[in-house]
Amino acid sequence: MQGKTDLSQFNNDWYQPGSAIKRALWYIVNVLFFINPLMPISGLKVALLRLFGAKVGAGVVIKPVVNIKYPWKLTIGDHTWIGEKVWIDNLGVVKIGANACLSQGSMLLCGNHNYKKAAFDLMVGDITIEDGAWIGAHSVVCPGVTCGSHSILAVNSVATHDLEAYKIYQGNPAQFVRNREINT
Question: For the chain, what are the domain ranges?
Fold first, then answer.
């Protein structure tokens, strides 16, 4: 006999991402300054992220309609670009290196659910985007994945496993397609 999902059993009391007050204040700031399409001022967003505990390097560009779950679990290196409608659902730690690019609509998803458990238990994994990596538009990086230095995840692709440095990946699940060569 097959078991059944029973969401009434779901319990993630073990997961403590920060105080309720801190999360409530961030929610308001996120809605007013990050998700808001009328707020294009990147420098203010960087300052607010730092105020809430994010480690953000110099020259970071954050476009409008970017959703960040918990800035205190976020590190962004120098001269990184975060495009429109990016979702950083960082239930776990997200580290984004220098000169990286998250194109519009891409998602970094640190959380998932254990479909083998009746209670659909929450599972959390950290994500690392190394220096010079490019996450293409509408692509998804899944929990526990590291995108190696200067790797590329092509448009509409899903990274379910680590991406090697200087390699280009495409598809769902993303597969290696060729090496990345950068002309100087």
Answer: 18-179
- CA 171 to chain centroid, in Å, comes to 18
Count of Cβ atoms closer than 10 Å to residue 8 Cβ: 8
Residues, the chain, total?
184
3-state helix, strand, coil in the chain (%, to 5): 15, 30, 55
SS3 63: coil
User: How many separate helices (H) and strands (E) can be counted in the chain?
Assistant: 2, 19
What is the model's pTM? 0.96
Q: How far is CA 121 from CA 23, 115, 118, 167, in A?
A: 22, 8, 8, 34
Strands (E), 67-174: 67-68, 74-76, 81-82, 87-89, 94-96, 101-102, 107-109, 111-113, 122-124, 127-129, 134-135, 140-141, 146-147, 152-153, 158-159, 167-170
Alpha helices, DSSP H, located in 17-155? 20-29, 42-51
Q: Give the pLDDT of residue 162.
A: 98
The answer for residues whose C-beta is within 8 angstroms of residue 31's C-beta and 6 or more apart is none
What is the Cβ-side half-sphere exposure of residue 94, based on CA atoms within 13 angstroms?
25
Second-level CATH architecture of 18-179: 3 Solenoid (2.160)
Average pLDDT over residues 21-38: 97
